[in-house]
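Internal tracking record. Fields below are filled automatically when a chain is submitted to the structure queue. Please do not edit lines marked as system-generated. If the sequence contains nonstandard residues, flag them in the REMARKS field before resubmitting.
Queue: standard
Priority: normal
Entity type: single polypeptide chain
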Amino acid sequence: MAFGKNKKRRQLDAASRNNAVKASVRSHGPTVAKALGLTVVTAALVWGGIELRTWARVSPRFALESVTFTGLERASRAELLKLSGLTAGQNLWSLDPAALARAMGQHPWVRTVEVTRRFPRGVSVEVAEHAPAALAVLGDLYVLDEEGEPFKRVTPGDGLDLPLVTGLERDAYVADADAVRARFREALDVTRAYARLSPGRSERLSEVRLENSGLALVTATGQEVRLGVGDTEVKLQRLARVRRELSTRGLAAEIIRLDNRARPGWVAVRLSSGSDSDRSGGSTQ
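SYSTEM-GENERATED OUTPUT FOLLOWS
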């Protein structure tokens, strides 16, 4: 009898659980149906997106027709197209702008480059080139940009007429590139100041020598100007006054020294051999 009662109790418990499940289904049926519907819609959207992307990658509607460049001076359109591998008919969706920019950035004159897809059929390329500021001797002859970076070797087709920076070795650049670039920037500062304070002068700057004792300038006529260390702007102003004074006297200088540390205002001049005297000296303020 006890066994029979337990069996009957188990049957009642099972029936109760079944009723509870049915009630839960009736209660949450709309939610379950809604979730199922969202799943179906999401799957459809994903499938549709894949199909759309597949279609876009082969559609002639997105075939490359034009590539426009801005900022080109030394680099040429043909050279950059060759580096990038861009050709007419390529699908815009298959292009990687970052990879194209890296490829074009291998051109020695290119400093930065930005590539943008212009749908449906174009690509624009914005280029910023290095601005040549001087030439530097580092074993070979290199072009310096305005930041003192030797960004390329000089080639015959460059056609550059720029001041030459000498006095530093390639080994020094390899050992400490930052320190050498800082010296190059020092030389470039001098070339800019010299151009500003000597506009249109016949003594065009030809060379800047970076020496242990400071800076020395050599003009296109061979005149040497020893600036030494520091007070570059003041010394160049003094140089202009000395040259005016020499000109009024009909004299020409072979060497002008403004590097006297003990007497900063002192200027020593060695006159050219064609002048009346070989040497003259004095102070100027």
